[in-house]
Amino acid sequence: MKTTINEVNKFVGQDVTIGAWVANKRSSGKIAFLQLRDGTGFIQGVVVKTDVPEEVFQKAKSLTQETSIYVTGTVQEDSRSSFGYELLVKDVEVIHEAHDFPITPKEHGTEFLMDHRHLWLRSRRQHAVMKIRNEIIRATYEFFNDNGFTKIDPPILTGSAPEGTTELFHTKYFDEDAYLSQSGQLYMEASAMALGKVFSFGPTFRAEKSKTRRHLIEFWMIEPEMAFYQHEDSLKVQEEYVAHIVQSVLKNCKLELERLGRDTSKLEQVKAPFPRIEYDDALKLLHEKGFNDIEWGDDFGAPHETAIAESFDKPVFITNYPTSLKPFYMQPHPERPEVVLCADLIAPEGYGEIIGGSERIYDYELMKKRIEEHGLGIDAYQWYLELSQYGAVPHSGFGLGLERTVAWISGVEHVRETIPFPRLLNRLYP
What we know:
This is Asparagine--tRNA ligase. The protein is α+β, with helices and mostly antiparallel strands. It has 2 domains: 5-96, CATH 2.40.50.140; 118-417, BirA Bifunctional Protein, domain 2, CATH 3.30.930. The chain has 13 helices and 16 strands. The strands form 3 sheets. The protein has an 8-stranded mixed sheet with strand order 6-10-11-16-15-14-13-12. The chain has a 5-stranded mixed beta barrel with strand order 1-2-3-5-4. Strands 7-9-8 form a 3-stranded antiparallel sheet, with no helix packed on it. The longest helix is centred in the N-terminal third of the chain and has 23 residues, at 124-146.
């Protein structure tokens, strides 16, 4: 019976064949222990000399790291391992013998591992992070599909910048200028006017010359947009969504979280509703914590976000930022025009902002004024302005950065481990 490692629990006491790679191996005079992986998981194969032909035992003892094999054996329960099962090996067929695999069980430097990212992905740690990433993606589709959202794919090549930044990757689009998208938001707003509640999931690009552990040049965003939703409505969706993906990972990735040494007690507290603190009060809190160099109108950096998050045991919304700090499309507070109806969701444990969202401006004259104030050019945004001309409604949306969210939930320090092939300031390889 051919099967995979994640399915062996169905075949306890039966013989199965698994296509696998040898992740590691150790042997004594009479027993060889094979650490096997097949992409779905890891299992230990035990080869007992007295139970197999001499040829099979010697073959097992000589297997090298990352050699690919077909291994046949009996599935048995193993209470000593977190996986719970092992394979009592009866036969080994070598598919391809690997020699001098660059990444050995010893310690390697980060740059070396990044140069060999295509091989580093095979490790237990990276396997666990990618499985958690996959679960977050699965739970994302589940949440939005179950809540009446329609998936929309905005373009990656655009003719303008949604947030008016100069940190864009420029390219030629035949005889026109084009840019790699930094956000699908404006297109999602247009889609919401057609379909009510929509979400996108796709790559975005920021030409920021940043080397922090929170930044990537290319990353993935989940961007919902909702017609007839005001700011408060959007906040409820955000906290329910984040709680859903966290609880889904806790339920479906127990082995991966354990492998990463994640303290799950902190994740178990992540349930809606989330605490909220206004920008003004966050500023006071920072002053109390000794950050006296920051004034009203200044943006919060990573140390500030971490200090604010330390006061809460769940993700926390920082609301009502100064208008000057935020993009042109955010709706002014009805009683305080100097701030906008927005929120950043700050993850606990120093992982920083994982969501930025707001209610959007839907008044035509105000939107036109804001575009002009930001020096963006009316012509490039004429199509977007038309959303405020034809059946304008209150609407809100947000964007969640996938890699920062994966880093927080999995407990890894740097976002470069949370995407299969990271693009960093000085890295376009492999």
